[in-house]
Amino acid sequence: MKIVIVGGGAIGRLFGSFLGKGGHEVSLIDVNQDIVGAMQGEGIGLMAQDEQDRDIIISVPVNALHNGSKVEGADLVLILVKSQATLAAAQSVAHLVNEACPVLCIQAGLGNLESVQKVIPPQHILLGLTFMSGTALGDSRVRQGGIGTTYIGELNGAFTPRLKKIASVFNDCGIVTRMARRIMGRLWAKVIVNSAINPVSAILKVPNGCLTSREESIALMKTLLDEGKRVADAISIDLACEDLYQLLQDTCQQSANNLSSMLQDILNDRATEIDAQNGEICRYAGMNGVSVPTHQAIVQLIKLLERWKPGIEHA
């Protein structure tokens, strides 16, 4: 397949390397010129999960580009950017999307579907979420984290031929993938779990696995889970998950040595996805009269971390 990936972060690199190793023609688009330049020269450098030597990598060639307008055709488009870049990403590849080439959005926040639908007809859009994890290293390298499951689904819940084909391609390439009928509910469950893990790990500056080792962090995350579930219940979202706390524990265990994407953003002085995670939960809560004081406090704390650099601030 000719696969276009928009987004050269950790997840984009992981998907690009797995699909490229699987024999597919991968074009990866990113606005960061340094990342694109490194991929043009060296491909994606995939580092095994337990490998300590950063010189031991598998190099996977990809066609790296700054702009999707230069791509003339594809069989599948993957949008793997942060939520704040979703609209621009969709606009850059809208010319590729048609009945024979759907766009699959695999992202970590809420509101992305609405952004993509501004430029792409809903019948050509698929949704997904992944529990794969990784850490972006320098240049175009990525350290593989937990081998979690990726879920993909049609907006109407049908198991269509195109969905089955994509699932087959992903699985054949080592991306453990399952089709899901309640993809929106699964997405909400993951966002609620992420809204507990990501900001807490960013505030404490610890790997995900540390979060379940202290009673205080466990209690804080449980409070965030409870508030998120009340919001989902208020708007009749079927979370497709019986036990959010178990999902949180599993996620932390599978990515125990990983720095969450939000912590990576804070450490690298980048904008986080707090608005698309806890912020969206707060927005839905406000519209439906649900109290979420912990999420509100977390949003403010992360925004402070985004703006304040290490050191002593003087009045």
Total beta strands: 12
Q: What gap, in angstroms, lies between the N and C termini?
A: 58 Å
Radius of gyration: 19 Å
The CATH homologous superfamily of the largest domain is called NAD(P)-binding Rossmann-like Domain
Q: Which structural class do you get from the secondary structure elements? A: alpha/beta
Q: What's this entry about, in short?
A:
The protein is an alpha/beta fold and 315 residues long. 43% of the residues lie in helices and 16% in strands.
What does this structure look like?
There is one protein chain. By secondary structure, the protein is of the alpha/beta class. It folds into 2 domains: 2-181, NAD(P)-binding Rossmann-like Domain (Rossmann fold), CATH 3.40.50.720; 185-307, N-(1-d-carboxylethyl)-l-norvaline Dehydrogenase, domain 2 (Orthogonal Bundle), CATH 1.10.1040.10. It is 43% helix and 16% strand. The strands form 2 sheets. Strands 5-2-1-6-7-8-11-12 form an 8-stranded mixed beta sheet, with helices on both faces. Strands 4-3-10-9 form a 4-stranded mixed beta sheet. Helix 3 (86-93) links the parallel strand 6 and strand 7 (103-106). Helix 6 runs parallel beside helix 9. The mean pLDDT is 92.
Structural topology:
Blueprint: E1 2-6, H1 10-21, E2 25-29, H2 33-42, E3 44-47, E4 58-60, E5 63-65, E6 76-79, H3 86-93, E7 103-106, H4 112-116, E8 125-130, E9 134-136, E10 141-144, E11 150-154, H5 161-172, E12 177-179, H6 183-204, H7 215-234, H8 244-254, H9 261-267, H10 275-287, H11 293-307
Search tags:
12 strands, about 325 residues, N-(1-d-carboxylethyl)-l-norvaline Dehydrogenase, domain 2, 11 helices, about 45% helix, single chain, Rossmann fold, 2 domains
